[in-house]
Write a structure and sequence with these properties.
Elements (H helix, E strand, L loop, with lengths): L1 H14 L20 H9 L1 E10 L4 E10 L2 E9 L3 E10 L2 E11 L10 E8 L2 E8 L13
Antiparallel strand pairs: 1-2, 1-6, 2-3, 3-4, 4-5, 6-7
Length: 147
């Protein structure tokens, strides 16, 4: 019985543990000063990547693009659930992270295609990976798609 109480207390403590946050919502302590090695790494950081998933089976979409040049990061991400396509543009630099633009486009609702395709495209570090899958309906319980 005593072990159960200890386990419950431990689970409760873990569930209520919080990462300290500053007033800006960052987990970085407010008076944190990076050392010279960290600053040099951050100034030298360079990358560019993109990711795109278009699911024509379930009518979903996800996109992300980001470019980092030293201390400056710019990018955007988009997603669609069939009802809306949302796009967010952002920047991060010595002034912090901020949204620089946002777009929301209403759609007609998801259009399920049980014989559709889904494609994935990723690019990073000069390498591109692309593939496509085709849905193949299999016999099974009869389902009903409700509009």
């Amino acid at each position: 019985m005593m072990v159960r109480v200890y386990v419950l207390v431990l689970l409760f403590a873990l569930a209520n543990a919080r990462v300290p946050r500053s007033d800006t919502g960052s987990s970085t302590p407010p008076n944190y000063k990076p050392n010279e090695f960290e600053l040099e790494q951050n100034r030298a950081a360079r990358y560019e990547f993109s990711s795109n998933v278009e699911d024509h089976i379930n009518d979903l979409m996800q996109q992300r693009d980001e470019v980092r040049d030293g201390l400056n990061v710019k990018g955007s991400y988009s997603y669609s659930d069939g009802y809306y396509k949302r796009t967010v543009h952002y920047e991060a630099d010595d002034k912090g992270y901020r949204v620089t633009g946002e777009e929301v486009v209403p759609l007609d609702g998801p259009k399920i295609d049980l014989t559709g395709t889904a494609s994935v495209n990723n690019a990073a570090h000069g390498t591109r990976i692309t593939y496509k899958v085709q849905s193949i309906p299999v016999p099974g319980p009869v389902g009903k798609i409700v509009d």
